[in-house]
Amino acid sequence: MTGSFVEKMKAKMAELGIDLSQIQMEQFFAYYEMLVETNKVMNLTAITEEGEVVTKHFCDSLCLIKMYPEIVKTVSVIDVGTGAGFPGIPLKIAFPGIRLTLLDSLNKRVKFLDQVCRELGLENVSCIHGRAEDVGRMKEHREAYDLAVSRAVANMASLSEYCLPFVKAGGSFIPYKSGEIREELEQGRKAVEILGGEIQDVVHFELPGGDGARSLVRIRKIRPVSAKYPRKAGLPGKEPLGR
């Protein structure tokens, strides 16, 4: 583990009020090394420089603490469209008490995530290959989670249809968004209502080091989702609800 990595991580974590143990720091570094190495043969991320991974992947993922301090307690979390494991794996390393499900539609990414979890010794993590529209209809996953998160690139209406079916009544869905989101929020509000949710809070912030505007949106699930949703694979993206 390099000294520069430790320094960068400590500085960023201090800004978030997160204190990592030596073991957690080593897990983050091992994850970084696996990410960069695997990226040579599989397209996981365009961001591979050490400082950028620390800020734009690890720190960005952990900014959830600003919106959802309950993450420090044991909660069940599903990361929908997790890709290379963001934000789910950084959340699991920093808050090991969570029960985590990582969902992605590309099997080779899911195999990479399985390997990461084994090598890092992460427990209570399930890596699932499937589309959100299909898995969200399965009895063992439907309305089974305290929290759904997603950093996937999709509009708020489509993301809500992918993610809200996983959340228990009383739970939350928190999408990670970048840039200006006011218009997207307004366009997505109707879909959120149709799917049994309400927009509770929005936090806007800059990533530490001024690396970009980010927003977290807390959507509270107030009632079960109609059995009509999610619609069949492909439809939530092509025909967003409420439009």
Automatic annotation (TrEMBL):
Would I find Lyase among this entry's keywords?
Answer: no
EC top class, as a word: transferase
Tell me, what's a Pfam family for it?
A: GidB
* EC annotation from Swiss-Prot or TrEMBL: 2.1.1.-
Record keywords, A-Z: Cytoplasm, Methyltransferase, rRNA processing, S-adenosyl-L-methionine, Transferase
Q: Where does S-adenosyl-L-methionine bind?
A: G81, F86, A132, E133, R151
Similarity comment: family membership: Belongs to the methyltransferase superfamily. RNA methyltransferase RsmG family.
Q: What does this protein do?
A: Specifically methylates the N7 position of a guanine in 16S rRNA.
Protein name in UniProt: Ribosomal RNA small subunit methyltransferase G
Gene behind this chain?
Answer: rsmG
